[in-house]
UniProtKB/TrEMBL annotation:
Name the record gives this protein: Triosephosphate isomerase
Quaternary state and interactors: Homodimer.
Organism: Methylovulum psychrotolerans
Classification of source organism: Bacteria, Pseudomonadati, Pseudomonadota, Gammaproteobacteria, Methylococcales
Main localization, broad class: cytoplasm
GO biological process: gluconeogenesis; glyceraldehyde-3-phosphate biosynthetic process; glycerol catabolic process; glycolytic process
Gene transcribed to yield this protein: tpiA
């Protein structure tokens, strides 16, 4: 039985004071839910959030990780640096990184490997644009994004990874894939992995990452191949985020 997982992606939001209050609010409402939960804070807030959540069930994550181990890469943050501050997860390939900052399938695969080199669990974000969906390219797009990692790291690398399916057309737009639309792609992803390794496919967590909110989370999380969510805007409010968390 796969454990459910909910990850909050705070993106480029908050002040030190506001995110510390947010983390404390989330911790206070965890209750006895045994599902996994994590928050991906902006780099500069990782130390303070790490101290606040230390020893709790709330895990720390980063929103990105460099595709190189070290060197003359101004502005980048390496996996080793993230590991020093207790990061357990790192997002790689978020659609905003792909769209705005030129991340490619190849560079995302390199980031994935860098995270794993420091025992950080990469959360591989994959998904199609509206144009690609309308052209019925969804499966081909996600297959290609998975293949880039498989070709570089091998299918065994998914033993210690999370996949987040984020339909790009549903991020920040208020649109959400229907439960059935999301399940269809999640099922395809799991079957694609299963064709290469059935054991990994059965245990890997595949999260939904497209504008999940308290009012639609329960239906999405009830789908057999959806193991939780990568939550954006709703994770900036402790009450909303906890409602989503307690939906799993």
């Amino acid at each position: 039985m796969r454990q459910s997982l909910v990850i909050g992606n705070w993106k480029m939001n908050g002040t030190r004071a506001s995110v510390e209050l947010l983390a404390q609010g989330i911790m206070a409402g965890l209750g006895d839910n045994t599902a996994g939960i994590a928050v991906c804070a902006p780099y500069v807030y990782l130390p303070s959030i790490g101290e606040i959540i230390n020893g709790s069930r709330l895990a720390l994550g980063a929103q990105n990780v460099a595709d190189k181990a070290s060197g003359a890469y101004t502005g980048e943050v390496s996996a080793a640096m993230l590991a020093e501050f207790g990061c357990q997860y790192a997002l790689v390939g978020h659609s905003e990184r792909r769209s705005y900052y030129g991340d490619t399938d190849a560079s995302v695969a390199a980031r994935f490997c860098q995270a794993q080199s420091q025992n950080i669990i990469p959360v591989l974000c994959i998904g199609e644009t509206l144009e690609q969906r309308e052209q019925e390219q969804t499966f081909a797009v996600v297959d290609g994004q998975l293949d880039a990692v498989i070709e570089l790291a091998g299918i065994a690398a998914f033993n210690n990874a999370v996949i987040a399916y984020e339909p790009v057309w549903a991020i920040g737009t208020g649109k959400t894939a229907s439960d059935e639309q999301a399940q269809e792609v999640h099922q395809h992803i799991r079957q694609y992995i299963a064709a290469k390794d059935q054991t990994i496919a059965e245990k890997i967590q595949i999260l939904y990452g497209g504008s999940a909110k308290p009012d639609n989370a329960k239906g999405l999380f009830a789908m057999p191949d959806i193991d939780g969510g990568l939550i954006g805007g709703a994770s900036l409010d402790a009450e909303s985020f906890l409602k989503i968390y307690h939906s799993v």
